[in-house]
Design brief:
- The protein is α/β, with parallel strands linked by helices.
- The protein has a single domain, classed as TIM Barrel (Alpha-Beta Barrel).
- It contains 10 helices and 12 strands.
- It has helices at residues 20-29, 43-55, 90-109, 129-137, 144-182, 200-209, 221-229, 235-242, 274-278, 293-306; strands at residues 6-9, 34-37, 59-64, 114-117, 120-121, 185-189, 196-197, 215-220, 246-251, 253-255, 258-261, 282-285.
- Strands 1-2-3-4-6-8-9-12 form an 8-stranded parallel beta barrel, surrounded by 6 helices. Strands 5-7 form a two-stranded antiparallel sheet. A two-stranded antiparallel sheet has the order 10-11.
- Helix 4 crosses helix 5 (144-182).
- The model has no long low-confidence stretch (mean pLDDT 94).
């Protein structure tokens, strides 16, 4: 059994119909004894998971917000974006804070030290994100159309971003106070989409502001690489400028800008992050289906060789 600081996110093999004991047994079967609890558990399924984790001797290294999921139906958003810490709607922002506190409680119940959060979004009327991604996938990365659209999107984001970042600061002040009293650290994760918070400048600002309040940086390999490939921020800049704040890292591969593949099964240059794999950071494989158990086993072998 692998006994390093290497874990796997439950997003790999859990869905609402999963047998939780079977899911955990599969993880132990590939040689891991540690997990990150993902963001897709209802309160009842989370209670079952934590009970089984303890009984099966599995370590929890991190929890991903929101966990458990809020019970009410959500807008057309991904589960991690259920409510936004950046929202200018005070009702929504306060709900995001309250449910993040519940996730901190989950981290305490799971006896882990870190809750990973997404900070929110700069909400704009002309959101060019889908169009930018589509042009990239069509091979038009170097076209005038692509650069015009990307540059315009980033200008709009910059001009509108401050009020949303201010909301994040207000939310973090309350969250970090609650987390500190519970002995939980907060990991601020690299984002995928250009309009999400934080970009690299916002990350530096937030990490500097709250460096003594329990806020750390959680690096996501795939997300940082997508930012690089889209021509927004070089991957190395995230490592160079935020590396001293890093507490954990999500490990997954990608082809083009399609990510969450098993490590070493895409086209990412793993030498870029070799130094950080060796550091005392929490390492979590965040591959999604259809990554196979055989692929994950091979990835574990290679990651252990690099550690």
């Amino acid at each position: 059994m692998n006994d390093s600081r290497l874990a796997i996110s439950t997003t790999w093999n859990f869905n609402s119909r999963s047998d939780i004991r079977g899911m955990l047994s599969e993880i132990k079967g590939i040689g891991l004894g540690a997990i990150e609890i993902g963001y897709n558990f209802t309160a009842s399924r989370l209670k079952e998971l934590i009970s089984l984790v303890n009984a099966m001797g599995i370590k929890v290294v991190s929890v991903h917000n929101f966990c458990p999921l809020p019970p009410e139906p959500r807008l057309r958003r991904f589960a991690t974006d259920y409510y936004r810490l950046s929202s200018l709607d005070e009702t929504e922002r306060k709900k995001a804070v309250d449910y993040t506190k519940r996730s901190i409680d989950t981290a305490c119940l799971a006896s882990c030290q870190v809750l990973i959060i997404h900070a929110g979004t700069v909400e704009v009327e002309n959101d060019y994100t889908k169009a930018i991604l589509q042009l990239y996938k069509e091979g038009k990365f170097n076209s005038k159309e692509y650069h015009k659209l990307k540059d315009e999107a980033l200008i709009i984001r910059r001009d509108k971003g401050k009020v949303y970042l201010d909301s994040v600061v207000t939310s973090l002040q309350e969250i970090l106070t609650y987390a500190y009293s519970a002995g939980i650290k907060i990991g601020l994760e690299t984002r995928y989409y250009p309009n999400e918070i934080p970009n690299i400048e916002e990350a530096e600002q937030l990490l500097s502001l709250f460096k003594d309040k329990g806020l750390f940086y959680w690096h996501d390999v795939g997300h940082a690489e997508v930012n690089d490939r889209l021509g927004i921020t070089p991957h190395y800049d995230y490592l160079n400028r935020l590396g001293d704040y890093m507490i954990g890292i999500h490990l997954h591969d990608l082809i083009g800008i399609d990510d969450h593949m098993a490590p070493f099964y895409g086209d990412f240059d793993w030498s870029l992050i070799s130094t950080y794999i060796r550091k005392e950071v929490i390492r979590v494989i965040e591959a999604h289906q259809p990554a196979t158990p055989q692929q994950i086993k091979k990835a574990i072998e290679k990651l252990d060789q690099k550690a």
